[in-house]
Amino acid sequence: MRIFGYLKAHSKLSISFDVSDHTIPIATTPSNVNWDEQYPDVREELPPDAPTPKGKPAKITCYSDSDHAGDLVTRRSTTGILLFVNNTPIKWYSKRQNTIETSTYGSELVSLRIATELVMEFRYRLRMMGIPIQGSSVLLCDNKSSVLNVSLPSSTLKKRHNAIAYHRVREAVAAKIISVGHIDGKHNLSDIMTKAVDGVTFKRHTQVTLKKM
User: Half-sphere exposure of residue 181, counting CA atoms within 13 Å on the CB side?
Assistant: First the structure.
């Protein structure tokens, strides 16, 4: 009923293709780091049968977020992801996590791992369509601890059960597939994929992705 109520009230909105650059209001990413000690041979795997890239390069920007123990019955968290190609939202993901995480850090790390794999998938798809990729894809998260842990080689993992997600994201950073940055929660567009938010916040986030017809 809420979905149909929303569609009835906002029948003039649509998702449009926009090839302009996606602007990020606030994002800080650690740079100039050396991963040779942790992941010396890591590199992005390129499809050998991809066509010769032509045209304007595409930039992938991905927002990742998670609530913590939002499910009142199972106490599982919800992952929310919104992926842009240039300034067009192409993929959105909202799903309850398969594990029960005991901290916000753990649930955010699970979300970052899923977002990383989605970014890698879309980089492969674009290359197979002959579209050049512009540099590393930007992956944004509003949890500073998670961002620093996957962005700095000197950071260590204290929660061993998160090791797979932790190394999956760090390896992608080392291979320059993604660049993980911190963004303030009020600018994290994937926030609406994880929880019910107030009308003002919902409207502010959807204005970036929805256009008047």
Answer: 21
Of the candidates 123, 122, 151, the one whose C-alpha atom is nearest the C-alpha of residue 135 is 123
Under 8 Å between Cβ of 211 and 16: yes
Torsions phi, psi of 18, nearest 5? -135, 115
- Least Cα distance to 19 among 143, 179, 134 occurs for 134
Give me the residue label for tokens 């929805």: 210
pTM for the predicted model, two decimal places:
0.91
Q: Cα separation of 179 and 116, whole Å?
A: 10
- Digit-coded pLDDT (tens) for 22-40: 988 666 666 678 999 999 9
User: In the chain, how many domains are there?
Assistant: 1
> Is 15 in contact with 210 (CB distance < 8 Å)?
yes
Report if residue 186 sits inside a domain: yes
**Which helix H or strand E contains 79, and what residues bound it?**
strand 78-85
Q: Which domain holds residue 130?
A: 60-212
Binning pLDDT at 50, 70 and 90, where does residue 208 land?
A: confident
134, 57 in Cβ contact below 8 A? yes
Nearest by Cα to 69 from 201, 157, 197, 195: 195
Kindly report, residue by residue over 111-162, the tens digit of the pLDDT: 999 999 999 999 999 999 999 999 999 999 999 999 999 999 988 887 888 9
